[in-house]
Every structure is written in C-alpha cells, then in structure tokens.
C-alpha cells in the first residue's frame, strides 16, 4: 500500500495530484511542514530532513515531490512519463529548472506579499524574489509559446511538476506572459488537479 506523508497545503499537493492522475489508492498521513509530526523519531527515520512529502511504497521510502512523481509515473507505466528519451530528458530539465529558478522564489514572494501577517512581511525580500521570478516567467512563457506542453506533444510529468509548483501563480496577474497563463490554467483544470487543489483549499 502506498502511504503519503504530507499536507496538501505543502509541496505534497504535487504528489496528491499525481496519484489522482494515476488513479492510485493510498493512505494519507496529513502533516504540515515543520509540524510536530515531522519531528517524531518515526518520521525522521523515514526522512532525516524532516520535510514533506515522503512516501512509503511497499517498503520503499522516497522524498522530494519531483522525484516521487517521476517514480510513480514510471512505476505504473503511465503515459505521463515520456517514453522518448529526448522528452524524458526535457521532463528532467524542466523539473530541475523549476526547483532552481522558481520553487523557493515564488513561495518566499507569496509569503511576503500575501501569506504572512502584514506585520511580518518584508517588501525588500518580496522585491528581491520578484526580480528572480520575472525572468524565469519569461523563459517559461517563451518555451510555451513554441509548444503547448513542456516535454513532448502531450501533458506529462514535466507539466504536472512545474504547474504543481506554481500553484501560487493561479492567484497572480500573469497577463504579461499569456502562454504561461494559458498553460497553467489548462494544467489546473485537469480533474486530478482540481481534486488536489480542493484538498489544499478545503
């Protein structure tokens, strides 16, 4: 039985989206980042970093949402995992690119513009993050102008990983990047995405 550790209000939303796409049954340990549940000896034995998500899959333990999603899609022979080596490489490229160029930046920006109580927000931090986000959005928009999806002709793990990480972008004004905006909306309109988002917001 697949067991997923992590709340939908964290990066775990990406993995919950993936299991929805795959139609997998799973047990869910709904723990928030930095919560008491991530500090127990039992959890630290699974993930010494104390981060979420982590999965247990018939004795196999894996953390990092991008890697989890690639593993699950490939294990279950999903068409979401590109079979062409070039498209597979593009899936890796965009997933790794996102973790470097947008993952921390967009989370920090959201924290210091909307998520944190106003007294805890720092405009300088938000501005610094936005200075990194803008060129990254431009790169993603340019790629999506050339192709409707990131790794081949169809929606794939690449799109799920990057769009899953950009959930905060749904509340942003993306009119300067129309290809990015359209792609993000298409991704999050998928039934499994809607179900994961409902878990996050509900």
Number of strands: 4
CATH topology call of the largest domain: Glutathione S-transferase Yfyf (Class Pi), Chain A, domain 2
Q: Going across the major beta sheet, what is the strand order?
A: 2-1-3-4
Question: How far do the termini sit from each other?
Answer: 25 Å
Rg computed from alpha carbons, rounded to a whole number of angstroms: 17 Å
Q: Whole-number average pLDDT?
A: 97
Number of domains: 2
Shape: globular
Q: What percent of residues are in strands? A: 5-15%
- How do the helices and strands follow one another from N- to C-terminus? EHEHEEHHHHHHH
Largest sheet: 4 strands, mixed
How much helical structure, as a percent, in the residues?
55-70%
Just name the CATH architecture of the largest domain: Up-down Bundle
- Tally of individual helices: 9
Unreliable stretches (pLDDT < 50, length at least 5) are: none
Quickly name the level 1 CATH class of the largest domain: Mainly Alpha
Question: What is the SS-derived class?
Answer: alpha+beta
Provide a descriptive summary of the structure in words:
With 202 residues, the protein is an alpha+beta fold. It folds into 2 domains: 2-78, 3-Layer(aba) Sandwich (Glutaredoxin); 85-190, Up-down Bundle (Glutathione S-transferase Yfyf (Class Pi), Chain A, domain 2), CATH 1.20.1050. Helix content is 56%, strand content 8%. The chain has 9 helices and 4 strands; from the N terminus they run E-H-E-H-E-E-H-H-H-H-H-H-H. A 4-stranded mixed β-sheet has the order 2-1-3-4, with helices on one face. The chain is globular.
């Amino acid at each position: 039985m697949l067991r997923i550790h992590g709340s939908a209000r964290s990066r775990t939303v990406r993995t919950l989206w993936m299991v929805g796409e795959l139609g997998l049954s799973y047990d869910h340990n709904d723990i928030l980042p930095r919560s008491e549940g991530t500090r127990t000896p039992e959890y630290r034995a699974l993930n010494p970093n104390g981060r979420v998500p982590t999965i247990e899959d018939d004795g196999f333990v894996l953390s990092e949402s991008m890697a989890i999603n690639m593993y699950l899609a490939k294990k279950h022979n999903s068409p979401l995992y590109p079979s062409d080596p070039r498209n597979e490489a593009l899936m890796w490229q965009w997933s790794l690119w996102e973790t470097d160029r947008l993952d921390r930046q967009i989370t920090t920006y959201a924290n210091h513009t909307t998520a944190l109580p106003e007294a805890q927000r720092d405009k300088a931090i938000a501005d610094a993050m936005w200075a990194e986000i803008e060129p990254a959005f431009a790169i993603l928009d340019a790629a999506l102008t050339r192709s409707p999806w990131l790794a081949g002709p169809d929606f794939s793990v690449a799109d799920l990983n990057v769009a899953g990480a950009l959930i905060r972008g749904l509340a942003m004004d993306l009119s300067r990047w129309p290809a990015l905006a359209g792609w993000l909306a298409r991704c999050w309109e998928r039934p499994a995405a809607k179900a994961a988002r409902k878990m996050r917001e509900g």
